[in-house]
Each structure stands twice: as structure tokens, then as C-alpha cells.
């Protein structure tokens, strides 16, 4: 989000997300995540069960969005909900072999939430940060002593993984800080893509790049250097537009009411 628009980070941290924001675009991903999570917690290895879980989990997650987050799912038309249900059922059917191969045989934690300390220089002064996040699946092989992070993506875009490299590097860093060694692999489970298990290599170059991004982020937060983005495309579906200075009403030189940008 920081790369998309720094102002959005500021508004998020101030609790300014719009009430009743539409979650339709993210909803299939949430459903697939939850089906995988619940299956791994309740009945790993129960082959064929996941598609039968989809409908109830869709209903539950739609209600939770409204009651816990004040968000809604605006269905596109009368057939949209049934199509999402069918897509999610297909995705969890396809993902089962990967879960059986890469997760079920090992120790694992699902929806693993972390708060990990990291010290970085901000204007040359060592500054302690808290890395906060959640991983879909953290896998451990105690015999071989390795860790692996798996992230479930409900995308049909074969190139989507390129946008997730920063996210996976962040998980890799968290594992290194907490476990004293980095992951052996970070991978996307993307059952609707041609390459259903996409391993994203974690190189030293990528780790250095991530630390540099974290220092930039921490310095911007410290300096309150959080301007609005110039890319209007980022604003189209932004949940913070109502509170954003870019869209604040102003009076122009002709004395007319207009928007700041
Ligand atoms: S509306 Fe645009 S500029 Fe404002 S917070 Fe959202 S993305 Fe950033």
C-alpha cells in the first residue's frame, strides 16, 4: 500500500476506511483462504471435503464482513453469487493436491499472526519497529529443520505473482527474525493459474531491497512524509477517498466549489 499511495497508509492508520466499502473484488480470495484454513485445522487429509464447505463459509464470511468490518459484498448481478460459489469450489478442488504434498505431511500453522521487532536506522538513529502481519500457512519440517511460507491466491492472472514478491520477502524476513534462519522457500498456491504452485526465489538481493524499503517506510512515517499519489488510477476504488485531502472540496479562483486535485 505504501508504494501505491503514502497518504492511504496514513488514513488507514487513522481508522478512516469508508463504512460500507465494497469487498466484492476480494471476496472470492477470502472465501478460498478460509476454506483452506478451516480444512487444515479441522480435517486435513479429508479428501474432497473442501468444496462442500464453500457455501456455508461464503455465508459466514459475508456476515462477518458486515458485522466486524462494516463492509459489504455488492454482487454484480443475480448470477454473480452462484458464479463465485462455483469458482471457489473449483479453486479448493484444484488446491487439494498441493496442500497434501506441501503442508499436510509437515507441522504447520495457518493464519499465523505475528508482531516481530526489528531495529533499523532512521536518519542514522537506531529505531525499533514492529513488523505486523499474518501468513496464510507457515510450514515447518522439524526433521530437516526448514521453514516454508505458502500464500493462497485466488487469481487467474498468471503474472500476478510478480506483484507479491515484496509481500513474500516480508514473510521471509519475519521467519528469519523469529526463527533465526530464513525460509527455504516462499510460494504462492494459485490453483486457478497454469502454474498452480509458484515458488518465488528469495535472494540476498531481494532481502537487501526489502530492508531498504523498510528504512524508507520508517523514515517517511517519522517525517510524516505521506503525500497523496499522483496516479489517479490508484484512487478509482480507494476506500479512503472520502477522507483524502486530494478529494477535499475547495473554492477555486472563480469562487466555485471544486475538488482539491
Ligand atoms: S484517494 Fe487516491 S490519493 Fe487519496 S488516499 Fe486514496 S489512493 Fe491515495
- Element order, helices and strands? HEHHEHEEEHEEHEE
Strand content: 15-25%
How are the strands ordered across the major sheet?
3-4-5-6-7
Proportion of residues in helical segments = 25-40%
| Count of DSSP H/I helices | 6
The averaged pLDDT comes out at: 93
Query: What count of domains describes the coordinates?
Result: 2
Number of strands: 9
Which ligands, by name, code or SMILES, are bound? iron/sulfur cluster
Biggest sheet features: 5 strands, mixed
Instruction: Please report the distance between the alpha carbons of the first and last residues.
Output: 20 Å
Q: Indicate the overall shape.
A: globular
Q: What class would the helix/strand composition place it in?
A: alpha/beta
Describe this structure in words.
The structure is a single chain. The protein is of the alpha/beta class and 261 residues long. The protein has two domains: 17-102, no CATH class; 107-223, no CATH class. The protein contains six helices and nine strands. The protein has helices at residues 6-13, 27-42, 50-69, 80-102, 165-179, 204-223; strands at residues 21-22, 71-72, 107-122, 125-141, 146-152, 185-189, 197-200, 249-251, 257-259. It has a five-stranded mixed β-sheet, sandwiched between helices. Strands 1-2 form a two-stranded parallel sheet. Strands 8-9 form a two-stranded antiparallel ribbon. A hairpin with a 5-residue loop joins strand 8 (249-251) and strand 9 (257-259). The relative contact order is 0.15. Bound molecules: iron/sulfur cluster. The site of iron/sulfur cluster has 14 residues, from helix 1.
Amino acid at each position: 500500500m505504501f508504494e501505491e499511495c503514502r497518504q492511504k497508509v496514513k488514513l488507514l492508520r487513522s481508522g478512516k476506511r469508508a463504512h460500507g466499502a465494497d469487498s466484492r473484488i476480494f471476496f472470492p480470495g477470502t472465501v478460498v483462504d478460509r476454506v483452506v484454513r478451516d480444512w487444515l485445522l479441522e480435517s486435513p487429509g479429508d479428501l474432497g471435503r473442501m468444496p462442500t464447505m464453500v457455501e456455508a463459509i461464503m455465508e459466514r464470511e459475508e456476515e462477518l464482513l458486515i458485522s466486524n468490518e462494516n463492509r459489504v459484498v455488492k454482487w454484480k448481478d443475480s448470477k454473480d453469487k452462484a458464479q463465485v460459489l462455483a469458482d471457489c469450489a473449483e479453486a479448493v478442488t484444484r488446491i487439494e493436491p498441493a496442500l497434501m504434498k506441501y503442508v499436510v505431511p509437515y507441522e504447520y500453522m495457518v493464519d499465523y499472526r505475528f508482531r516481530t521487532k526489528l531495529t533499523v536506522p532512521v536518519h542514522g538513529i537506531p529505531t525499533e519497529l514492529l513488523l505486523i502481519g499474518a501468513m496464510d500457512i507457515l510450514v515447518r519440517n522439524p526433521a530437516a529443520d526448514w521453514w516454508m511460507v505458502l500464500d493462497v491466491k485466488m487469481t487467474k492472472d498468471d503474472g500476478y505473482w510478480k506483484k507479491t514478491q515484496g509481500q513474500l520477502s516480508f514473510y521471509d524476513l519475519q521467519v528469519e527474525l523469529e526463527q533465526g534462519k530464513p525460509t527455504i522457500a516462499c510460494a504462492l498456491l494459485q490453483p486457478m493459474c497454469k502454474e498452480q504452485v509458484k515458488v518465488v526465489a528469495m535472494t540476498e538481493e531481494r532481502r537487501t531491497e526489502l530492508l531498504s524499503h523498510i528504512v524508507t517506510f520508517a523514515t517517511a512515517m517519522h517525517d510524516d512524509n505521506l503525500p497523496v499519489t499522483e496516479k489517479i488510477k490508484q484512487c478509482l476504488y480507494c476506500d479512503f477517498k472520502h477522507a483524502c485531502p486530494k478529494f477535499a472540496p475547495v473554492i477555486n479562483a472563480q469562487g466555485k466549489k471544486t475538488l482539491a486535485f
